[in-house]
Amino acid sequence: MAPTDRLNQVNKHLNYPAGMLAGQVAIITGAGQGIGAEAARLFANEGAKVVIADIDANKANSVADAINAAGPGRALAVVGDVLDPKYMDELVKQAAEFGGGKIHIIVNNAGFTWDGVIHKMTDKQWDTMLAVHNTAPFRLVRAAAPYFRVKDQEPRVVINISSTSGIHGNAGQANYAVAKAGVVGLTKTIAKEWGPAFGVRSNTIAFGYVTTRLTAAKEAGAFITTPDGTQVALGIPGKQLDGKKGAEADSYPDIPLRRPASPEEAARSILGVASPYFSYVNGETIRVTGGRNM
């Protein structure tokens, strides 16, 4: 497709009475809760058919059912573990069938943390973080390649979710920081390989403090179970959260907006990057932090 043809196609999509993502099919991993679930709802509200990919069947189906209650046939739950290579192939297969033979958007959002200081971190902690945040997104993008390396004049977007831990590092998160830094390299490579001939856009969103189960108090008891049955506690130890008292604790002094983001606010940035308004943004890492770490 010639550059002018691509621009004309983008301009056509800017007239969106049926939604900015009308006619598009999106896969969102980790969409059973939190940021992923909010992104799925926003995408569906903008006309997309959304594939809810999550390991938790109850949560995935609940999100899909809620979306379909507002308009049947807009969401499909495909349950599975992103660490299972066979799941990625099945996910792409079902998404393509759901979308009438097309997939337009991938949001690699699934992930979790398994913290530990460097001198005490196990190989399993290290390997699991790279598998979840690097290998799984790579496998999904590779499996979906036949639906992205096409010249049908329709938009194609890959959005990889990272973290400011991958940009600045973070004590106790060497594994997570390395994995989230790796996401940036994957994003840029997709942009360079698939942008010239196919017009595929690929961008990273690096989140700061968002109120999810990963930033809740660890004492709340949230956990995730790895394929071998290991339960990994999620969240931040309460002593760290309670390090500041009173008004200072409520103001988040290291965030210029003085508050964390809600999951919906975070999801809006994903919608923005997927939308036609970001049609010339490619290979970038977009920080959504409320101004933290400027």
UniProtKB/TrEMBL annotation:
The keyword Oxidoreductase applies. It comes from the Eukaryota. Residues 241-260 are annotated as: Disordered. Keywords: NADP, Oxidoreductase. Signal peptide: none annotated. InterPro entries: KR_dom, NAD(P)-bd_dom_sf, Sc_DH/Rdtase_CS, SDR_fam. One of its GO terms (biological process) is fatty acid biosynthetic process. Gene3D superfamilies: NAD(P)-binding Rossmann-like Domain (3.40.50.720). Residues 24-197 form the Ketoreductase domain. One of its GO terms (molecular function) is quinone binding. PANTHER family: 3-OXOACYL-[ACYL-CARRIER-PROTEIN] REDUCTASE, SHORT-CHAIN DEHYDROGENASES/REDUCTASES FAMILY MEMBER. Belongs to the short-chain dehydrogenases/reductases (SDR) family. This is Ketoreductase domain-containing protein. It comes from Penicillium atrosanguineum.
